[in-house]
């Protein structure tokens, strides 16, 4: 099996980075004259070398984490230019260029200046990109971002995130008296679905259901995965009848949602059980969850 | 009855190890990363009858836990295990007439269904208490918690499916976890935390609950299954200590057909010691006698073969951190 380097993500940017570092080192060693060891300032060299190393770490982290695109190219380009400057600044401690021209060493800051200009453009595009991304996260995120609370299966936030959001709503309820509603949605016969179609298909169903819920709630609402086949939706500043009506719409949408298998044969649509409560007095988020679970069990038995 | 050690490749990889790696892979973890330090390769699992050791499973669990893939992974794994067990042993389990018959079948199939834990039964007038212990090797608390969650998800999934509305109590030995909702989602309602041992309490009435759609005449004979009589190293040692509470290290070594020094080394390889093992066996018996049956100190000391009461009191204080009278007031 032949490994194709071209398939490596950001191949050209990695090549640019390698090329820049190599050229900088070769030019410095070839053109410069080594300084006598008595002229080398160790602390200065360590500090400047450390700066160059840290900028290289940032650059590698950027290339490893970001997807291909204009923002990444600009970020990597800017950081590479800054790295060249910092590297020259460090090598300056070991080599002298006075025999070519006494002011040549003063030019080492210019790549960094150019790099910062490029980075400024990159930051501007990054801001724009983030604004678009925030729009896609509407209904999945409110007030703050914390990746450790993300649920891997559905891409929604987890119960921990919802707990924090409910605490914010409860604070608001205590201060301004604004009531809010919370609903729990539970997939019917999820266990049987997994038994018939496997855990992988089951996790796909959970992911689809998460998307289905976010699609059918309002922009100000927040959907999170609670646990297992249960989802929680927060309806801020919403009367109970509105929250119930939105929950019913989500359940209706679930009834006409189909899963497809490899041969495009439709699998049974799964329906949702739901329970909704209005929070009109301050209480712990755990109590709210308990009330919801109890009501959900009652609704299931009644059905 | 025979036993297997933690490093012996005796466990079917396709029961828990492969599904665990597949689940991690689905969540973006490369199988090589999950298998790091196990001397196993993903390609090995292409053999349908591949076997691996418990230490390899333990290492994989540790590797996957460091990746923080979400708290639900153990519960999903338990659900998967439920499906694979039901597919394989349906004829043995689905036609047990009631919960009592199912427990008897599970006891015989213990080595096949979930060989990582052993179960010790205590009977009371109103209920039976099943104490769950590690069967092969002592585990790190996080790995023990992970396996316990897999087991809870498996048990509750089965109960929810075949014994709807049956109330079973689960007492767990750790503090209430932050992700308690995962426990609620599997339908484990009667849960309590902070106990000394992992215990399942089933009332006598619940034992008579009939299994949904069971036809006892269709139940397969468990004796036809081979290899169900092999247990883990710790379970094997414990079974001897339960039968012989006064046994010494030498007695246990004779039971294992080995020398005392070799047994000590083997116990160390299983993260255990003779004294710890004996303490656990005796403390569980003492906890049940005092906490559930209300025995007096002299009665319990007699059951546990203690020569004098001061010794017994000191042992209770060492095991539970409280005196026997205080133990009577708190839950075990």
UniProtKB/TrEMBL annotation, chain A:
The record lists the catalysed reaction(s) as: 2 GTP = 3',3'-c-di-GMP + 2 diphosphate
Q: Name one GO molecular function term.
A: diguanylate cyclase activity
| Enzyme class, spelled out | transferase
Query: Its Enzyme Commission number?
Result: 2.7.7.65
**InterPro entries cross-referenced by the UniProt entry:** Diguanylate_Cyclase (IPR050469), GGDEF_dom (IPR000160), Nucleotide_cyclase (IPR029787), Rev_trsase/Diguanyl_cyclase (IPR043128)
Keywords from UniProt, A to Z, are: Membrane, Transmembrane, Transmembrane helix
Q: Transmembrane ranges?
A: 12-31, 43-64, 71-88, 108-127
One family from Pfam that matches here is GGDEF
Q: Does the keyword Transferase apply?
A: no
- Superkingdom is Bacteria
GGDEF domain: residues covered: 178-303
The name on file for this protein is diguanylate cyclase
Q: To which species is this protein native?
A: Pseudoalteromonas luteoviolacea (strain 2ta16)
Task: Please name the taxonomic classification of the source.
Answer: Bacteria, Pseudomonadati, Pseudomonadota, Gammaproteobacteria, Alteromonadales
Automatic annotation (TrEMBL), chain B:
Q: Which UniProt keywords apply?
A: DNA-binding, Transcription, Transcription regulation
The molecular function terms in GO held by this entry are: DNA-binding transcription factor activity; transcription cis-regulatory region binding
Q: Which Gene3D superfamilies does this one have?
A: Homeodomain-like
One GO cellular component assignment for this chain's record is: cytosol
Q: Which InterPro entries match?
A: AraC-type_N (IPR032687), Homeodomain-like_sf (IPR009057), HTH_AraC (IPR018060)
Q: Cite the Pfam families for this sequence.
A: Arabinose_bd (PF12625), HTH_18 (PF12833)
Would I find NAD among this entry's keywords? no
Q: Which residue ranges does the record assign to the HTH araC/xylS-type domain?
A: 231-330
Would the keyword Cell membrane be found if you checked this record's keyword annotation?
A: no
- Which superkingdom? Bacteria
- Which SUPFAM superfamilies does the record cross-reference, listed alphabetically? Homeodomain-like (SSF46689)
Signal peptide (residue range): none
Name it: AraC-type DNA-binding domain-containing protein
> Which organism does this sequence originate in?
Pseudoalteromonas luteoviolacea (strain 2ta16)
């Amino acid at each position: 099996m032949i490994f194709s380097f071209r398939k490596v993500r950001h191949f050209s940017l990695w090549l640019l980075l390698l090329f820049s570092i190599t050229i900088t080192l070769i030019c410095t060693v070839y053109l410069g004259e080594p300084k006598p060891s008595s002229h080398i300032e160790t602390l200065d060299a360590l500090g400047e070398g450390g700066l160059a190393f840290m900028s290289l770490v940032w650059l590698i982290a950027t290339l490893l984490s970001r997807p291909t695109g204009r923002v990444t190219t600009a970020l990597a380009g800017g950081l590479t230019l800054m790295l060249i400057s910092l590297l020259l600044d460090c090598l300056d401690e070991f080599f002298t260029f006075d025999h070519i021209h006494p002011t040549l060493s003063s030019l080492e800051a210019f790549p960094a200046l150019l790099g910062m200009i490029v980075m400024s453009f990159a930051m501007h595009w990054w801001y724009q990109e983030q604004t678009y991304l925030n729009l896609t996260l509407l209904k999945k995120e409110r007030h703050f971002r914390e990746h450790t609370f993300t649920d891997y299966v559905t891409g929604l936030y987890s119960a921990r995130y919802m707990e924090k959001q409910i605490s914010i709503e409860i604070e608001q309820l205590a201060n301004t008296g604004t009531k809010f509603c919370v609903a729990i949605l539970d997939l019917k016969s999820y266990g049987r679905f997994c038994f018939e179609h496997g855990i992988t298909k089951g996790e796909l169903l959970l992911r689809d259901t998460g998307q289905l819920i976010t699609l059918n709630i309002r922009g100000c609402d927040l959907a999170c995965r609670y646990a297992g086949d249960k989802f929680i939706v927060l309806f801020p500043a919403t009367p109970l009848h509105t929250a119930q009506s939105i929950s019913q719409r989500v359940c209706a949408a679930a009834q006409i949602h189909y899963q497809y298998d490899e041969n495009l044969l439709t699998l049974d649509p799964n329906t949702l059980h739901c329970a909704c409560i209005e929070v009109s007095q301050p209480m712990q988020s755990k109590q709210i969850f308990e009330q919801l679970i109890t009501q959900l069990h009652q609704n299931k038995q009644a059905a | 009855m025979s036993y297997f050690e933690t490093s012996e490749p005796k466990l079917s990889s396709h029961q828990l190890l492969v599904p665990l790696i597949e689940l991690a892979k689905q969540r973006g973890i490369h199988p090589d990363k999950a298998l790091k330090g196990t001397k196993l390769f993903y390609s090995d699992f292409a053999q349908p009858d591949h076997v691996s050791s418990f230490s390899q499973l333990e290492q994989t669990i540790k590797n996957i836990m460091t990746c923080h893939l979400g708290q639900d992974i153990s519960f999903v794994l338990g659900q998967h295990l439920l499906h694979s067990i039901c597919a394989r042993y349906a004829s043995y389990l689905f036609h047990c007439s009631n919960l009592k018959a199912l427990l008897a079948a599970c006891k015989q199939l213990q080595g096949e269904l979930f060989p990582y834990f052993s179960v010790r039964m205590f009977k009371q007038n109103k209920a039976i208490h099943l104490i769950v212990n590690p069967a092969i090797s002592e585990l790190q608390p996080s790995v023990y918690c992970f396996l316990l969650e897999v087991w809870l998800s498996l048990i509750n999934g089965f109960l929810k499916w075949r014994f709807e509305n049956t109330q079973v109590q689960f007492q767990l030995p750790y503090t209430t976890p932050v992700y308690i909702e995962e426990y609620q989602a599997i339908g484990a309602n009667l849960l309590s935390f902070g106990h000394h041992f992992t215990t399942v309490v089933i009332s006598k009435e619940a034992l008579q609950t009939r299994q949904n759609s069971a036809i006892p005449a269709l139940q397969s004979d468990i004796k036809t299954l081979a290899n169900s009589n092999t247990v883990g190293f710790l379970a094997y040692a414990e079974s001897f200590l339960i039968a012989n509470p006064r046994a010494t290290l030498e007695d246990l070594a004779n039971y294992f057909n080995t020398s005392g020094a070799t047994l000590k080394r083997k116990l160390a390889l299983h993260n255990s010691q003779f004294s710890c093992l004996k303490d656990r066996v005796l403390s569980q018996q003492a906890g049940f006698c005092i906490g559930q049956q209300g025995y007096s100190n002299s009665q319990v000391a007699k059951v546990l073969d203690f020569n004098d009461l001061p010794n017994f009191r000191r042992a209770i204080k060492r095991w539970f951190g409280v005196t026997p009278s205080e133990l009577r007031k708190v839950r075990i």
